Amino acid sequence: MIAVPDELETVDVGEWHARVERAHCDGFAMFDWLTAVDRMDSGTPGFDVVVRLIALPEVNSATGLRGIRLTARVADGQSLASITDLYAGAAWHERETFEMFGVFFDGFADHTDLGLRPLLLPDGFEGTPLRKSFQLAARASKTWPGGKEPGEGHDTAKSPSRRRVQAPGVPPPEWGRDDAGGGCPAGGERACRLPRAAPARRSDRAQTHGAHAGPPRADVCRGLHGWAQLVADGAKFVQKEDIVPAAADKRLFRLAPAIALIPYLVALAVVPIAPGVAGLDVPASAILVLVATGVGALGTLIAGWASANKYALIGALRAAAQLISYELPIVLAVASVCLAGGSLSLPTITERWQPHWLLWQLPGAIVFLVAAVAELQRPPFDTPVADAELVMGPWTEYTGLRFAFFLLAEYAGIVVLSLLFAALWLGGWHGPFSEHLGWVWTLLKGFAVAILVIWMRVAWPRVRADQLQRLAWLWLVPLALLQLALTGVAVVMGW
To answer: Which of 72, 168, 221, 333 could form a disulfide with 368 if both were Cys (CB 3.0 to 4.6 A apart)?
Structure first.
């Protein structure tokens, strides 16, 4: 810490604000601290309120930092003028001085608009905490049962909400603006201005306090309802450095994002949108989709294994257990629909779809939807990527575009899941005017499923790993087997 020489000056209570204002105009633009001192040698009851201000050096000036300490003797029952209009950072110090010493500041104002409130003390405590009488009462009283924030009552139903306490000496975002108030009197010794070095410091401190509104509220994104944020995120990922840990398996580490993303793009190519409209016409397209989605989930496992990070490895092992558990219900649910349609081709199954399948295949549809969300590791089944436990799980060591590929793989999986569900269980292009608007019906049904998947993210909390396994083996697998048996009986009986 750099020692700053201080000028000492005693000020009358009535001249307090004017003297501080004059010091502000003399270049002491930085507020350091304000407190009260209970002097034992004083003949009158009260406190010495002391404020310390610092003057930053001018650019190209040989003088260094200068400090000044102004002291005012405040007797019991007297109040002192607030200097928050001159130094916004003084708000926290004045509030604490009032709560601890009982010194009231006239004209106090801060960003909370709550004003000065006394501490809410337990029964048997009187006075202010840092006065001698309070210390004696606390020593003779019962054990402290727990204090509360100022303004928060014992009856929580009637008490106001907990106030936000500003950090000591850190000004709110509006500190230092030209319209913040606190002008200097006419004819002052010097022009009321901050030194040239102050704006950078003021900007840095305001940003650390949270003055930055955040990308979603930026002017460039506000007019587009936040959609431009996607473009901003893409540009951000492109500019980030691609870091590979020194102990990682570099070949697998670099290959894992592609293994996670490409299989979902392959699966998307064989999902039919309309009669005869698909990227690839494969005879057994249902099997291809199941294989591709299973391989895509392996990308997460490879990423965690190759990262040489214990959090990533734990997340990868969770992903492997989740893949094994939920791949079986998915296969059984799709097999039931394929058995009902008499084909392994997705266009053929969609063409043979009947409206009564909505009820007949409903258990399989529920199993497929839940299991597919779990295989995608989407909330509430995101235990492999649990940020509160494993940082980011298998993705912990990834940066830049490679990290973005994992995010793209997740959303590509949502698209594949939604369109596949729409084709197998919702009839795909079947609907009014399907001859001309079949592709519209497929996209609308897929969009509805995607909205449901995204809604699950915010509607359900994350499940534990044991709950996740119990759901798969005790509920989804038996229900999928029951659906498959029911479909087999119906096909054999010719229903």
So the answer is: 333
Write 152-157 long-range contacts (CB < 8 A, 24+): 152/120, 153/120, 154/120
How many whole angstroms separate alpha carbon 345 and alpha carbon 282? 7
Of 89, 79, 128, 96, nearest in space to 110 by CA: 89
pTM value surpassing 0.90: no
How far is residue 34's CA from residue 40's CA, in Å, rounded to a whole number? 19
Output the furthest CA–CA distance in the chain (Å, rounded).
106
Which uninterrupted H or E stretch holds 50? Answer: strand 46-55
Provide the residue-wise pLDDT of the chain in tens; the chain has 495 residues.
456 678 888 999 889 999 999 998 888 888 888 988 876 666 667 788 999 998 887 755 556 778 899 999 888 778 888 998 888 888 888 888 887 777 888 888 765 666 776 666 555 555 555 554 544 444 444 343 444 444 444 444 444 444 444 444 444 555 444 444 444 544 444 444 443 333 333 333 333 333 344 444 444 555 566 777 778 888 888 888 888 888 888 899 999 999 999 999 999 999 999 888 888 888 889 999 999 988 888 888 899 889 888 888 888 888 888 888 999 999 999 999 999 999 999 999 999 998 888 888 999 999 999 999 998 888 888 888 877 777 788 888 888 888 889 889 989 999 999 999 999 999 888 888 878 888 999 999 999 999 999 998 888 888 888 898 999 999 999 999 999 999 999 888 877
